[in-house]
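ARCHIVE CARD
CATEGORY: sequence design from structure
SOURCE FIELD: tokenized fold
FIELD CONTENT:
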């Protein structure tokens, strides 16, 4: 256990231990392709001021060897280091399908730990020649299918029987199932993943998943079964806008099962034309935008078992491999992450009911039903209702969002789709036999498998609900890539939405592997000339050559480094980032200003509630100002990246250009020596936050920023770009009360206004309840800006100190805002749990802090009579700011301050 907040309580001291062993930020990865994996662990101790001083790692080819003290793959020896996050493997070269068992011992300034429990990782197929399998499929539509703007393509079913004559010691299966797959062995579904593998630009890369299937195999006859859905590979809108929408081909399969027997022999079961195939199964169509249709009368029970008669099935075709390189998927697949009990069900007419889940989310509906064979039930999905109680679907564009289930009869049936997801709160149910009840349905949230890392609650109910809405919106839009919306015919991974959003999301979810994968998607999408698209993977051909959207490539890499200590992502992508920076300079920089912008400060609150975008030039910020300010900021980030990447010679190049850009920027946009351009909040905020404002002009520009907010009655007037820096910027420059007012407003335009209108997620538009349905998604994340980051870093005081990464040293300096009585927050950092809970009553402030082992914290508290667990405490006093700074080691602390005023 860890120390009680009050250290005057007597407790039993527990020894130092090591937990949460991870390889490549995954707990037990199977089939990784990192030839130098990175290992992490966490320390646990109830003592204060615990710091790791050294570690010892053992890696062996079997658990038995490790237990016997024979690390035949790597014995690091005692390494003097406090590093416990992303420690690079330095043992013997790793081979394909190799199993690695490892453990770690930690030495500290207090006590040394015992050896940790044993953990394991296994290697994937590291070389193209390791694949013995062949691509199989069926490169045409069946007679009942259609390939059109609204394609209908039935799922493809593949099976293979084989025998195991000897005792199986270990078995690993590698699969590439494009577009999506479900995998079965001897009738049992392998794994809990859904909608796998993760989507990519299949012309550049395709992902394989790996499974330890030792426990699935029988002695004697066995059977593999695979169902292929369409996913993003067989693109939903075939032959429709071919210049915009990329298509890749018909579904196809590559599968390889390697069995190691107890006698040391090995056998491979691979996909080839000896398999059996049919497309005439129960899944009649599956289209991410339009829905899935399942005819239970066409089921073939036991089809994935060895006893099934497949004599009427045909041989699959040997098909051309996709162009992309086969890579191990290094992020966990999607799965059912939560279940939702419906709120109520209402009857529209004799055959139509409306189900209300009570929460907007992305996933699907599981249904129980009993009825006659051939009965057809239709499910249509929407985020909201019309005034007459029917579904509001105008904002879904041409997405048909309809599932259909045909009963087989004979008893209770249960069904849920396999290869689609919907963004919805409401479901229109047609054709259900009898009278349905809420007990017949369950909503299932489909999202990437991520640990929930953070929780934050305050005394302000509006802010709490906004943060809850943000959680549901973010979870809904994690789909193997970060997408913009889960409901209409878009669902695209827009870069601009996550430029700063990824940082806020990291406080709620451990999104490290997802965003590392997304950087690869962006790199895959870069053109030979250096351009980066607005959408990656590049399912849409959108190369607008603006700065603010592609900036995500650099700023998300910065997030991975700052939040998780992931230096490798920076080093890996540095050449491509540099290439893009040079491309934009070469093509669009004139007189040291970047002259190209596409989207402006996207989605500022418009002057009319019916408009999607403002037409008022006084509300909109100059695109050249946006592009140039962002480019300047990115130059400064690239200076840090150059040092991390071992390219110090680049720093002076960036520095000289940044100085020229700063001069040109102020010459072009600093007006009357006190504001920028047309004086929007964004126009003044970006120069302040990015360090473009001359030192002697800082005070007047800050004042102009504040005056503009007052003119807007302390409401949001920024779009996607400005809002990314808004609350942190106001707090940084001395206006935390203004930031709090913006965060908690309940009138238009504000996040609280969405709450007041009944929203359970974040909207695409500030006026999403009144704007044209052409663009008013009710489950979006781009308008969150820096709200979540500000809540954790500034309200709770949980952030990395400027000289640190991954919260190795924590900066705890909350803004104790008037009108906010308490904040309670926790964050699972790479080093362990960080907690910050404060409460203010009159002039008395109480603050409980938890700092994980192997970290320290710089804690700033308002000056006054300060005690820690009842004992007087002194620190470094900052008279100017009336604060006291404390340097604390790991442990739990209970601070109390009696403030002078």
């Amino acid at each position: 256990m860890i120390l009680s907040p009050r250290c005057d309580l007597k407790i039993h001291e527990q020894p130092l231990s090591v937990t949460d062993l991870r390889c490549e930020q995954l707990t037990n990865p199977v089939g990784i392709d990192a030839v130098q994996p990175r290992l992490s662990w966490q320390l646990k101790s109830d003592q204060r001021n615990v710091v790791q001083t050294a570690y010892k790692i053992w890696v062996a080819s079997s658990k038995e060897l490790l237990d016997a003290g024979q690390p035949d793959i790597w014995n690091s020896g005692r390494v003097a280091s406090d590093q416990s996050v992303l420690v690079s493997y330095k043992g013997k070269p790793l081979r394909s399908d190799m199993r690695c068992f490892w453990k770690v011992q930690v030495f500290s300034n207090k006590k040394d730990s015992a050896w940790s429990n044993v953990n394991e990782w296994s290697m994937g197929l590291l070389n193209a020649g390791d694949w013995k399998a062949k691509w199989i499929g069926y490169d045409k539509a069946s007679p009942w299918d259609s390939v059109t703007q609204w394609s209908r393509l039935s799922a493809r079913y593949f099976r293979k029987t084989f025998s195991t004559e000897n005792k199986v010691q270990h078995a690993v299966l590698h699969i590439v199932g494009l577009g999506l797959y479900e995998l079965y062995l001897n009738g049992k579904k392998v794994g809990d993943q859904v909608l796998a593998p993760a989507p990519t630009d299949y012309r550049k890369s395709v992902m394989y998943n790996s499974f330890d299937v030792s426990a699935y195999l029988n002695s004697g006859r066995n059977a593999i079964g695979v169902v292929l859905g369409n996913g993003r590979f067989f693109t939903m809108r075939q032959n429709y806008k071919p210049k915009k929408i990329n298509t890749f081909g018909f579904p196809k399969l590559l599968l390889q099962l390697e069995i190691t027997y107890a006698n040391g022999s090995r056998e491979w079961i691979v996909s080839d034309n000896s398999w059996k195939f049919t497309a005439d199964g129960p899944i009649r169509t599956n289209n991410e935008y339009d829905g899935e249709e399942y005819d239970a009368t066409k089921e073939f029970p036991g089809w994935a078992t060895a006893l099934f008669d497949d004599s009427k099935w045909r041989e699959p075709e040997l098909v051309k491999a996709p162009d992309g390189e086969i890579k191990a998927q290094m992020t966990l697949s999607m799965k059912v992450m939560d279940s939702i009990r419906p709120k109520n069900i209402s009857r529209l007419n004799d055959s139509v009911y409306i189900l209300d889940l009570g929460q907007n989310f992305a996933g699907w509906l599981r249904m129980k039903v009993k009825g006659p064979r051939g009965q057809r039930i239709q499910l249509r999905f929407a985020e909201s209702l019309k005034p007459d109680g029917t579904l509001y679907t105008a904002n879904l564009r041409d997405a048909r969002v309809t599932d259909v289930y045909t009963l087989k009869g004979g008893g209770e049936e249960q069904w849920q789709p396999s290869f689609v997801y919907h963004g919805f709160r409401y479901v229109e149910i047609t054709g259900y036999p009898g009278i349905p009840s809420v007990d017949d349905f369950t909503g299932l949230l489909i999202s990437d498998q991520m640990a929930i890392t953070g929780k934050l609650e305050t005394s302000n109910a509006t802010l709490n609900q906004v943060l809850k809405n943000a959680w549901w919106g973010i979870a809904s839009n994690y789909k193997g890539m970060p997408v913009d919306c889960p409901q209409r015919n878009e669902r695209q991974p827009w870069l601009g939405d996550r430029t700063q959003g990824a940082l806020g999301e990291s406080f709620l979810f451990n999104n490290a592997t997802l965003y590392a994968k997304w950087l690869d998607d962006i790199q895959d999408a870069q053109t030979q000339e250096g351009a980066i698209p607005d959408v990656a993977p590049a399912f849409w051909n959108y190369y607008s050559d603006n700065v603010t959207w592609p900036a995500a490539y650099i700023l998300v890499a910065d997030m991975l480094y700052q939040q998780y200590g992931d230096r490798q992502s920076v080093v890996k992508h540095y050449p491509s980032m540099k290439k893009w920076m040079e491309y934009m300079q070469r093509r669009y920089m004139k007189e040291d200003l970047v002259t190209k912008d596409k989207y402006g400060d996207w989605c500022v609150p418009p002057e009319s509630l019916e408009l999607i975008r403002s037409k008022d030039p006084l509300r909109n910020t100059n695109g050249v100002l946006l592009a140039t300010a962002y480019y300047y900021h990115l130059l400064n980030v690239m200076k840090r990246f150059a040092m991390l990447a071992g390219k110090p010679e680049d720093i002076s190049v960036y520095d000289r250009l940044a100085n020229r850009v700063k001069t040109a920027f102020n010459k072009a946009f600093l007006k009357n020596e006190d504001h920028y351009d047309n004086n929007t909040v964004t126009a003044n905020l970006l120069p302040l936050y990015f360090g473009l404002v001359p030192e002697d002009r800082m005070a007047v520009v800050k004042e102009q920023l504040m005056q503009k907010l007052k003119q807007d009655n302390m409401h949001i007037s920024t779009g996607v770009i400005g809002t990314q820096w808004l609350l942190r910027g106001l707090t940084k420059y001395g206006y935390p009360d203004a930031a709090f007012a913006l965060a908690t407003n309940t009138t238009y335009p504000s996040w609280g206004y969405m709450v007041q209108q009944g929203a359970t997620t974040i909207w695409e538009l500030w006026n999403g309840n009144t704007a044209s349905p052409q663009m008013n998604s009710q489950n979006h994340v781009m308008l969150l800006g820096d709200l979540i980051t500000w809540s954790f870093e500034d309200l709770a005081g949980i952030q990395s100190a400027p000289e640190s990464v991954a919260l190795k040293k924590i900066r705890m300096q909350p803004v104790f805002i008037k009108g906010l009585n308490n904040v309670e927050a926790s964050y699972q950092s790479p080093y362990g749990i960080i907690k910050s809970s404060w409460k203010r009553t009159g002039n008395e402030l109480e603050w409980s802090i938890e700092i994980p082992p192997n970290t320290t914290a710089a804690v700033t508290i308002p000056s006054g009579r300060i005690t820690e667990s009842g004992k007087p405490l002194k620190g470094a006093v900052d008279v100017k700011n009336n604060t006291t700074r404390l340097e604390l080691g790991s442990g739990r602390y209970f601070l109390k301050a009696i403030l002078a005023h």
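CARD ANNOTATION: Confidence is low (pLDDT under 50) at residues 1-12. Residues 454-796 form a domain with the Glycosyltransferase fold (CATH 1.50.10.10).
SHELF: design records, drawer C
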